[in-house]
Amino acid sequence: MSGAPLPRIALLTLASAASAGAVAAFAARHRDSLALVGLSNPYRRSAGGPLGQAWRHLRRSGPRLLGYLLVNMALPRLAGLLSPGPGPLARALSDGAARVVAVEDVNGPAFAEALRASGAELIVTFHFDGILSAETLALAPKGGINVHPSLLPRHRGPIPTFWAGLEGNGAHGVTVHRLVPRIDAGAVLAQRAVPLPPGTTVSAAARLLHEAAVPLAAEALARLATGDAEERPVEPLPYRPFPSRAALRDARRRGLRLVDAADIRAALRARL
Fold it and tell me: Residue 80 is part of which domain span?
């Protein structure tokens, strides 16, 4: 492949311990192509706010999932408050020209205006919690791609490493695929299986797979830039939602842990 210039990128992400290091590495690697960085507000009112979301997760999944979410979402933010200073993504963007915006509604007029003003040609979602409408995707001349930590079409949904962990050896991997207005359902651009050590927690698997996705995403972007990208349509398998209490009990019986002490230390280092 030749060194064709990459399209100008609008990077959308949800800051968490599961992806902070990988997203920062992606941003550093493609700093010269970044036109816009959108940071989702996970506690936005339209999603129920922090209390509404916590109650919804508690009713469906019980306290074990709340612990997982606290480690990956809340603990890094607390660490950032207690130890002020730029986190990994802010450091990666410090000498670049990309505008950073908070995203309350990815399909709303405020984000549409920011996307148009940025001149971004391609949207890249990397651990993002919003589904982009066809109208929003059409604002980027080259559409959008998503980075997903599973071997799609398997394990569509918000915590794929939980379901892959239940499935067992050989189930983990990463996929770069086209964005469509359906969760994790677009044509596959690049995919790679990633073996993980036995006993890897759900949280650690997410970090490792997101890290493995950074070079895979770079390959996909290079092929898009040269026109050599092959898009493989896939028939989506059933959506995998947040786990129920029964699924979490099954995971415990099988020895699949959501978090451990190493995950807590990683969350503190993430400093969102």
Answer: 9-270
